[in-house]
Write a structure and sequence with these properties.
By secondary structure, the protein is of the alpha/beta class. The chain is 35% helix and 17% strand. The strands form 3 sheets. It has a 5-stranded mixed sheet. The longest helix is centred in the first third of the chain and has 20 residues. The protein starts with a helix and ends with a helix. The chain binds zinc ion. Zinc ion binds next to helix 4.
């Protein structure tokens, strides 16, 4: 039964991912996708369960929170988040001034393109994915809020789309809920939650 639900969900999510790739992210699928299942998938994943990531933040507060974010996925899931300085690199963590956008963090494919893969639950094609914080906003964030954004963007790179949670209470809310204003400012979340961990177990 669960597999059937997940197959149906995967079909819906393929469509969502396709729309997202066009730059139009529709409202999340219903929170009634299945008991206990609110995560949604990009249907693309890392090439191995050892994820090689590179810190290009230049250190300081950003570097420390990128390291903490990677460590949180490493300790909460079967994935090994390995900090490396040489190829192959799967994820680059960085920050940059983007001005007054409507996002505090972003995940891009290599060369700035939209991350994509050619088959459902295939491997990202344009590695390394680059996760970036927008310093316009994040320079003023406390350490754990920076970490919440880094960890959220890493979640995208690992293959998790935004959580289909109503966002009215903190119960069951995951790191992959889309706004840091609710996720962190209201719910105080900066570590992978039960739903996020379930998504990783499903993907890998
Ligand atoms: Zn996001």
């Amino acid at each position: 039964m669960m597999n059937l639900i997940r197959r149906q969900l995967a079909t819906v999510l393929t469509l969502v991912a396709a729309l997202a790739a066009l730059g139009t992210v529709p409202s999340p699928a219903s929170a009634q996708d299945g008991p206990g299942i609110q995560y949604q998938l990009h249907n693309c994943k890392m090439p191995s369960t050892t994820v090689r990531w590179s810190d290009q933040t230049g250190g300081g507060a950003y570097g420390q929170q990128a390291i903490e974010a990677a460590a949180s996925w490493d300790s909460a899931t079967p994935l090994t988040m390995q900090l490396v300085g040489a190829s192959p690199i799967h994820i680059i963590a960085d920050q940059s001034y983007w001005g007054k956008t409507d996002w505090a963090g972003l995940t891009q494919g290599a060369g700035g393109g939209i991350p994509s893969c050619t088959s459902v639950m295939g491997v990202w094609q344009n590695l390394p994915l680059k996760i970036m914080l927008n310093t316009y906003f994040t320079d003023d964030y406390p350490a754990n809020k920076k970490q919440s954004v880094f960890a959220h963007e890493m979640g995208h790179a690992l293959g998790i789309f935004h959580q289909s949670h109503p966002g009215t209470t903190c119960g069951g809310l995951g790191l992959m809920y889309y706004t840091v204003a609710f996720r962190y400012d209201v719910c105080g979340q900066f570590l992978p939650q039960t739903d996020d961990v379930a998504a990783i177990h499903y993907i890998y």
